[in-house]
């Protein structure tokens, strides 16, 4: 088993922006299409389902989709706000000029921020030109949050995100490589998925690092080159 380089995450840099275009849909076609349509529907004041809750295990794509929703909102010309447990409490206050809110890792919010999200739900429901998408690790009834917020999480549409299988991840890597004009030797996707990082953000960051490494050395992307890159990162 290949040991994970301790400093690898520092060397890879930031992953590419999260959009719907680079999200591998697999078994999540319905929720992804619903989220794709949301920003345009809000901009045109025709959004029928304005309260959406997503849940799934780590690596299922929750954070990617929330950022993708905001990206589509900006493209539709509306103001969006991405919120997480790391954001200031003041960021959770409802702003009538903001039409689309996304809240990540709701189960990790402290009580003050949970109360703020509860208020956001109420405000969004009262303002027909706004929408909110919240993401968490469990179904609404199982969420370890305040009872009043737990109730709100189930008010609108609820979708469970199905995690990608190893085969899906390998297909996603091949697709992403093709989009970058990168030719992978057949064993690389399997090696990365089965012997290294298993979440898609890390796998995509690895792919970008490998692309840069191969260009710098003017060599094809092969398994020996990949192992060489990891050996250098571990030094």
UniProtKB/TrEMBL annotation:
Organismal lineage: Bacteria, Pseudomonadati, Pseudomonadota, Betaproteobacteria, Burkholderiales
Protein name: DnaA regulatory inactivator Hda
Domain Chromosomal replication initiator protein DnaA ATPAse per the UniProt entry, residue ranges: 19-159
Pfam families per UniProt: Bac_DnaA (PF00308), Hda_lid (PF22688)
Residue ranges of every copy of the Hda lid domain listed in the record: 166-229
Naturally occurring in which organism (per UniProt): Cupriavidus basilensis
């Amino acid at each position: 088993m290949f040991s994970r380089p301790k400093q690898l995450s520092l060397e890879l840099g930031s992953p590419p922006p999260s959009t719907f275009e680079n999200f591998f849909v697999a078994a999540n076609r319905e929720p992804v299409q619903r989220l794709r349509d949301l920003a345009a529907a809000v901009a045109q004041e025709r959004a029928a389902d304005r309260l959406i809750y997503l849940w799934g295990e780590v690596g299922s794509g929750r954070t990617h989709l929330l950022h993708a929703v905001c990206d589509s909102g900006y493209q539709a010309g509306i103001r969006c706000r991405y919120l997480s447990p790391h954001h200031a409490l003041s960021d959770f206050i409802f702003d009538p000029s903001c039409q689309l809110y996304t809240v990540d890792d709701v189960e990790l919010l402290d009580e003050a921020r949970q109360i703020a999200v509860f208020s956001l739900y109420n405000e969004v429901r009262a303002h027909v030109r706004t929408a909110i998408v919240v993401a968490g690790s469990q179904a609404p009834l199982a969420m370890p949050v305040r009872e009043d917020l737990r109730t709100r999480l189930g008010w609108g549409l609820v979708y469970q995100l199905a995690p990608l299988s190893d085969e899906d991840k390998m297909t996603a890597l091949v697709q992403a490589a093709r989009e970058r004009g990168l030719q992978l030797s057949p064993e690389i996707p399997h090696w990365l998925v089965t012997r290294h990082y298993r979440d898609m953000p890390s796998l995509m960051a690895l792919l970008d690092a490998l692309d840069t490494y191969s260009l710098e050395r003017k060599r094809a992307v092969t398994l020996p080159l990949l192992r060489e890159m990891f050996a250098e990162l571990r030094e």
